[in-house]
């Protein structure tokens, strides 16, 4: 099920998208300091593209000639990969486009996918810089695996929903609030989630809504819903890649001209801008895909219709948090879904019912560092594996995040599409 991207896409030129404001604002220096030489020595040609604003990468990837690229790699947090995934899925040729190998180098404050692939490789948890080096090695090796995506419907207009694609998580309640509120502690890096958690614990609240899900049918024994894929199959569905028309520069910053960009040299432009542009700036909710490209969601019915009869409707309506995960880690130190693998075709659904004490909730978060929270016998915590879910919050205002990005608040439903993307891992 794994192939070298250099075998599929010869030669393996990599578009490396960097969000210079991600994390503590050091993504570019982290890249030049820790990864660039490694890639050069391994002979991985790459072209650096510095993003100038939110959705820049999404637009770039939507329009790009993908035949030129062996892989699209981001150096940022999960938010930039979210842009890339959605840019690919918004293309007319999404089915082919989403086969482009994706890669992640942790340069943000939320590096959940990087932590997950590091974990899947069998390695022990490490510091942030070691995680970056570990992901740099994975990129040099260039082994590609399949990755699940979830299709997420947002229901401002239930008969005509907008849709986006998610590789990591859907969150509501405590975790979503922490993600957004902790933006102001961005300067401390990944520790912002710990600080945000402590602050939110002090003002713990209840979130009201209705949750329903389609449970995994474990009886048929085909838990992951996927049939094994041969190497031939993997390679035969990959996009046709031609040799690049020009040589790529791997040792110096080379920026491709950016379409519709007032400045043709994004690198220079970005260096002049100070990091302050990003700090404390309130972000717009991520827009969804209105054209509905992508695979049909056979498990979902329109949001204004009741869920199908084989779904489970949770009787409780008072929650502290709801978290749907498709990968193991929600952050470097939040090992939330220990059973999850990259392409198990499952949504790992975790929710915490209202009534939990602050102390018990704190214990849960501390246990998540080691992934032992599910064995804690916490009566308020429920964990179940599902294929699809729907959440209807009762309040008109609140926070829902998809892959850590704020989306429009309101009814939301999702279904998993097993292994439809490809990621550089192992
Ligand atoms: P972090 O983990 O530090 O939050 P992300 O990669 O998640 O880093 O990026 C945070 C947000 O910044 C995302 O919403 C992303 O779309 C957005 N973004 C990407 N590039 C830029 C840029 N050049 N300027 C401002 N925002 C950007
Ligand atoms: Mg983020």
Write up this protein:
The chain is 26% helix and 24% strand. It folds into two domains: 3-148 and 226-277, Probable inorganic polyphosphate/atp-NAD kinase, domain 1 (Rossmann fold, 3-Layer(aba) Sandwich); 151-221 and 282-416, Tumour Suppressor Smad4, CATH 2.60.200. Helix 6 packs across helix 7. The protein has 426 residues and is α+β, with helices and mostly antiparallel strands. The chain is built from twelve helices and 16 strands. The longest helix has 15 residues, at 27-41. Magnesium ion is lined by residues 77-79, 108, 110, 404. Residues 19-23, 51-54, 56, 76-80, 83, 108-110, 278, 283, 404-405 line the site of adenosine-5'-diphosphate.
Q: How is the secondary structure organized here?
A:
Elements lengths: L2 E2 H4 L5 E5 L8 H15 L4 E5 L5 H8 L7 E6 L1 H12 L4 H4 L4 E5 L5 H9 L7 H14 L1 E12 L7 E5 L2 E5 H8 L10 H11 L4 E9 L15 H6 L29 H7 L39 E2 L4 E8 L21 E7 L4 H11 L12 E13 L6 E3 L2 E3 L4 E13 L2
Parallel strand pairs: 2-3, 2-4, 4-5
Antiparallel strand pairs: 1-6, 6-7, 6-16, 8-11, 8-14, 9-10, 9-11, 9-13, 11-12, 12-13, 13-16, 14-15
Helix pairs in contact: 2-7, 3-4, 6-7, 8-9
Bound molecules: adenosine-5'-diphosphate and magnesium ion.
Magnesium ion binds next to helix 4.
CATH architecture term of the largest domain: Sandwich
Which outline best applies?
globular
* Domain tally: 2
Please tell me the overall pLDDT. 84
Question: Measured on Cα atoms, how large is the radius of gyration?
Answer: 21 Å
Number of strands: 16
- The run of helices and strands is EHEHEHEHHEHHEEEHHEHHEEEHEEEE
* Number of DSSP helical runs: 12
The CATH first-level class of the largest domain comes to Mainly Beta
The fold-level CATH name of the largest domain is Tumour Suppressor Smad4
Query: What small molecules accompany the polymer chains?
Result: adenosine-5'-diphosphate, magnesium ion
End-to-end Cα distance, whole Å, is 12 Å
- Class by SSE composition: alpha+beta
Helix content: 25-40%
Largest sheet: 12 strands, antiparallel
Oligomer designation: single chain
* Proportion in β-strands: 15-25%
Query: Would you identify the regions where 5 or more consecutive residues have pLDDT less than 50?
Result: 221-281
């Amino acid at each position: 099920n794994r192939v070298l991207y250099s075998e599929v896409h010869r030669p393996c030129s990599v578009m490396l998208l960097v969000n210079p404001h991600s994390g503590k604002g050091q993504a570019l220096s982290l890249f030049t300091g820790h990864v660039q030489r490694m890639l050069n020595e391994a002979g991985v040609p790459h072209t650096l593209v510095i993003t100038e604003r939110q959705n820049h990468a999404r637009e770039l990837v939507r329009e790009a000639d993908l035949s030129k690229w062996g892989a699209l790699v981001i150096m940022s947090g999960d938010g930039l990969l979210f842009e890339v995934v959605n840019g690919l899925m918004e293309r007319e040729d999404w089915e082919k486009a989403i086969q482009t190998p994706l890669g992640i180098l942790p340069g943000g404050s939320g590096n959940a996918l990087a932590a997950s692939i590091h974990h899947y490789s069998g390695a022990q948890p490490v510091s942030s810089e070691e995680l970056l080096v570990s992901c740099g090695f994975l990129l040099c090796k260039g082994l590609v695996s399949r990755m699940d995506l979830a299709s997420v419907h947002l229901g401002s207009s239930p008969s005509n929903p907008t849709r986006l694609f998610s590789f990591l998580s859907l969150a509501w309640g405590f975790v979503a609030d922490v993600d957004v509120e902790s933006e102001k502690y961005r300067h401390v890096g990944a520790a912002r989630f710990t600080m945000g958690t402590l602050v939110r614990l002090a003002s713990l609240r209840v979130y009201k809504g209705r949750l329903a899900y389609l449970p995994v049918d474990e009886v048929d024994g085909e838990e992951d819903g996927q049939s094994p894929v041969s190497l031939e199959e993997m390679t035969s569905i990959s996009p046709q890649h031609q040799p690049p028309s020009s040589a790529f520069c791997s040792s110096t910053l080379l920026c491709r001209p950016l379409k519709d960009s007032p400045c043709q040299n994004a690198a220079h432009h970005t260096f002049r801008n100070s990091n302050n542009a990003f700090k404390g700036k309130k972000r717009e909710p991520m827009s969804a895909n209105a054209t509905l490209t992508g695979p049909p969601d056979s498990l979902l019915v329109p949001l204004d219709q009741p869920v199908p009869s084989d779904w489970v409707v949770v009787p409780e309506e008072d929650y502290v948090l709801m978290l749907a995960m498709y990968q193991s880690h929600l952050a470097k130190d939040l090992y939330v879904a220990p059973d999850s693998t990259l392409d198990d075709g499952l949504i790992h659904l975790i929710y915490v019912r209202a009534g939990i004490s602050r102390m018990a909730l704190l214990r849960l978060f501390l246990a998540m560092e080691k992934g032992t929270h599910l064995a804690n016998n916490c009566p308020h915590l429920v964990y179940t594996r599902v294929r699809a879910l729907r959440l209807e919050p009762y309040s008109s205002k609140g926070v829902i995040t998809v892959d850590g990005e704020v989306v429009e608040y309101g009814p939301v439903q999702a279904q998993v599409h097993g292994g439809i993307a490809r990621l550089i891992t192992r």
